[in-house]
Amino acid sequence: MGFRRKAIAGAVAIGLLGTVPAAAGTDPFRTAVHGLVDAGFPGAVAYQRTGTGHRAFAEGVADLATGRAALPGDRFRVASNTKAFVAAIVFQLAESGRLSLQDSVRRWLPGVVGGPGYDASKITVERLLNHTSGVHDPRDPEFFAPYLDEHRRGYVYTPDEVIRRSLVDPPATGPEYSNTGYLLLGKIIERVTHHTAESEIRHRLIGPLGLTRTTFPRYDPFIHGRHLHGYDMKNEDMTVFSPSYDWTAGAVISTVDDLAKFQRALLGGKLVGADSLARMKQVVLEEGPIGYGLGLERLTAPCPGGRQVVAWGGTGAGPGYYSMAFTTDDGSRQAVLGLSKYDLRADVTKVGKVAPAPPAPAMLAALCG
Known about the structure:
The protein is of the alpha+beta class. Helix content is 34%, strand content 16%.
């Protein structure tokens, strides 16, 4: 989730100030990923595609306690990369005429959004998707206390409770990255389809695409099967953590191969039509090199020789995990990276580093070529 979203954009921006690792006879992407492990990430899993050729590899360890080596197929929490899954379903429902992007929250969720300054009749599905709804995330510093201070990692927040706590304060006055907006989208999906958001993601995306190592839990705090353990900056194991607070904003668990397969299908026009995909790429909110569209993020960054790469995909960060998944605008290159350290307390308190190093140089090594 990452309530301090600018921590992600800022880390990417800092990373882009570095250089793309390159040396004769070396593998720039693998060298850069190995460098992230040397910088303090316990483990890293990575995927790279160039044209029709692709590979996946891992560096470091999956579990600091046992020393088990990380493997390319290890699962991890993708955090906000979940938003592209949710947005794809919303656009599918719009294409089939079951909802409109101009529908108001009041139409689908009467009585759910209210409070000082909020007008649910003016908050549309589109504005939830592109972070311009004014609905922000909970600003109560005690929101994460059950997890971080009381060590109740399985503590459950219902979407309704997160939304309620978000609406205590007046709405944002301009574009503001909002996880809560995507919780509202999850509830709209359920109201429109009369199915759970989890079942819609399974039946529309996970099953048809053959994402056999991808799951979307609502309450289960465990990652099942082989996976990376996630850590904070003090190397406290954060792997067991309720996804309930993040739900349709960030609860998906996946692998680099599965996430790459989903992204290829989405950006390749297999999940939504060309008009929908173009709309998903309409950027409204920009923070440094990251621009936020409707479930997709645009990465704009320099490459060696004065070239510039524009890529589409997403970033994700939450307790113990940090991920990036992007495909160049022409579709020729793709990279996915899952890392096993992210400090939620530093994110929430704005004190200290959220991660050992920015992963952007590694992504550029893969995307620039």
